[in-house]
Design goal:
GO terms for molecular function: inositol-1,4-bisphosphate 1-phosphatase activity. The chain contains five helices and eight strands. By secondary structure, it is α+β, with helices and mostly antiparallel strands. The protein has one domain: Fructose-1,6-Bisphosphatase, Chain A, domain 1 (2-Layer Sandwich). The strands form three sheets. A four-stranded mixed sheet has the order 3-6-7-8, with helices on one face.
Length: 183
């Protein structure tokens, strides 16, 4: 049940990051970067990743790994988390242990924009309790061996307004199962 509650909280955190990005035109304009040819989806003439995509992916990865050590090596994501700033520096976007450290890293990605970096870092590190989320927690116990799970994070896409997590694992009879959670 702890994993399910964490996913609900993380979905709210992801939604808050997306809301902040959409609400602030200055911030929204800073966040888009065209994918390199080897990263791009061949179905599109141009394929873009946004810092919001990557930040949501890395936020989920960071907090799941922190809370559920058994899942650490099995949390993967679609987006390459490397951005190139205007100085040509390649920066690996990863959520840090503190809001201040995350803001410092984001400031480098955002070419020194303190306001945008602080705003995003605050959302990433904002504490949200399960009771703060408008949802009903199922009464049914959700027990699963974390060693049997893998998580795939698929950030916001062109045709989807939701972030999704895909869990792959084995059920008790050793048959593969797949669970998709929309954030």
């Amino acid at each position: 049940m702890d994993l399910l509650k964490s996913l609900i909280v993380l979905s709210e955190k992801a939604a808050n990051i997306a809301r902040v990005c959409r609400a602030d035109q200055h911030l929204f304009g800073l966040l888009v970067q065209q994918k390199k040819e080897d990263e791009a989806n061949p179905r599109f003439v141009e394929d873009f990743k946004t810092l919001a995509d990557v930040l949501i992916q890395e936020m989920v990865r960071h907090f799941i790994r922190k809370q559920f050590q058994d899942l650490s090596d099995n949390v993967k994501g679609e987006e390459n988390n490397t951005f190139t700033n205007k100085l040509g520096e390649q920066i690996c976007v990863e959520v840090q242990d503190t809001e201040t450290k995350t803001a410092c890293l984001l400031k480098n990605v955002l070419n020194g924009d303190h306001l945008a970096a602080n705003l995003l870092a605050a959302e990433v590190h904002r504490e949200i309790a399960i009771n703060d989320v408008n949802t009903k927690i199922p009464d049914t116990e959700f027990n699963v061996n974390l060693n049997d799970l893998a998580m795939w994070i698929d950030p916001i896409g062109k045709k989807s307004i939701k972030t999704s997590l895909l869990f792959l694992g084995l059920n008790p009879s050793n048959k593969y199962f797949c669970m998709r959670s929309l954030l």
